[in-house]
Protein 1
Amino acid sequence: MNDWNINNKIYELGKGYTLEAAEKEEYSKYYAVYFKGDVGFKKNFKQKMAVVSEDDFCFWIKKDDVKIGGVFLEPNFIQELFLIPPFDNAYEVLKLIKRILIHWSDRSKDIEANVVIPSQVEIYEKLGFRIVETGRWMLSPTRKFDVKWDDKLQVVLPNKDHTEELGKLFYEAFKNAPGQKFSLKERTEFVEYYFEHNSHIEMLNKASSVIFDRETNELIGVCLISEYNEWPLIYDIAVREDYRGRGVASKLLKKSLTVLKDKYSAVRLHVEGGNDAETVYYDNGFLPGIKLTSLIIPSENL
């Protein structure tokens, strides 16, 4: 079995199957057509192709020298496997790929399988992978709403002076959520990144909101809007636990959809599996995309 080497172009898998290093531009066309998890609701075909970068290790999967699929693959990592019709034997392909992947990998670390589409999850599980988390993208058209705020709430535009407070709010809001893994420091760094890359864009800033309780002057809610691949993205949204159930999150979303309508046709967001907020998004007109799953083979099982 071939060892991993970034200069190798072909790896033998057995049973007539091979992996062959792919030229990025050609691979991106096949990926855009055949990978069934349209990550992030790409706006056009060119954007779907752009997912493949120069830093990726992408391989054709061949059977008797005929292309039957493709995959991103490197030691301890597999992502976005696709098959080319009429070939459909994903189990056989994955079984062989798993064998060489274990051979390549550092066995003191987990092997990660990311962006796995629903039809393949059970196959990964049969081959010894365990589910770590799930998530999906959601999409809504922008449109006008008449948003009326409670007089007890003060709604302002976000600025860098709010960074520490926002980091704390996001941390407290999500610390008990399924799959929560970010520290207060990391949450604050996400807010810092947001301001560094988005706050200078007037439309995004106007569509974002920070909410305080007028009586206590405490921060109770936030919605930050960024832009990615020409479409606005709900970068993060949170409401303090004791203010939930009062329609605050819905109003934050509706304000964003209303402001953004002047420039954009749609808004995206990403929600982790098990997050109760998915119902709020759905009730406000967001269309759920397909569920995508991350799995691992734990290092102790290698």
Protein 2
Amino acid sequence: MSELIKEPESFEQALEDLEKIVQQLEKGELPLEEALNAFQQGIALSQYCQKTLNDSEETVAKMMTKQGEVPLNGE
């Protein structure tokens, strides 16, 4: 029933794929099994994006802590 869910190539690709899935599900034209698979893939992509954002935030916070206040806009 469910397909193997692979990790996306990048955050941007995951976000793009997630947007496509949301559009498909909003149309309501997928058969139930396909809709469930799409929903499952969407959840996995959402979790991947959230983890990537959290990891990035932690990295920036560590950089700012180690180097003091670092202007993020190049000033």
Protein 3
Amino acid sequence: MAQLKITLRRSVAHRIPEQRKVVKELGLGRVSSSVVKPDNAATRGAIVKIAHLVSVEVVEG
């Protein structure tokens, strides 16, 4: 099953609270922090909400 590596590229300072909450729930803290999450609908939906703040790579695993 494929996984997604999500990296926070832009700060969440001065962003709306919903976007800050999504970033925190994904496990991202500081700029340049990364997490690996399963490629499923829930993860994709969270990424769509903060697409302008993150970069995403597909990791085969």
Protein 4
Amino acid sequence: MIHVPTAFFIFGAVAFLFAIKMAADGIGRGEASKVLIWWCVTFLCLAGASLIMALRPFDPVGGRSGLPSLLLLAGFGLAWRGVSTFAGTRAPWGLVVLGPLIWLAAWSQGVFADDGHRLILVSIVVIFYMTASGWTLITRGGGL
């Protein structure tokens, strides 16, 4: 049986290590550093979301605060920005921040009474960002 908080902690720790690696690789690499910095920030957002969720059994309020989902959506939006930069294009900032803004608006209005509704919204936004990332690579990736 998988202990979910431990899995979140391990994922968060690995994402944090990836962020450090991306930052270290991006120093002094010119144009390539932009891509690595986007992915560094992406991994920091994902690490933050995971580590907050890992602490949920000890601080249930923190895990349900909306911050983990906000960081997750910001991370996936920034991942799309990183993929676009890698492919030589730019994902529109308005769409990159739209998912987290929708989440903030819905969460601040108390729209999510249960975890199921939260999961649906987060899933839809993540699917959008990952589809946009894939589409960017297919259409602009030049055989990557």
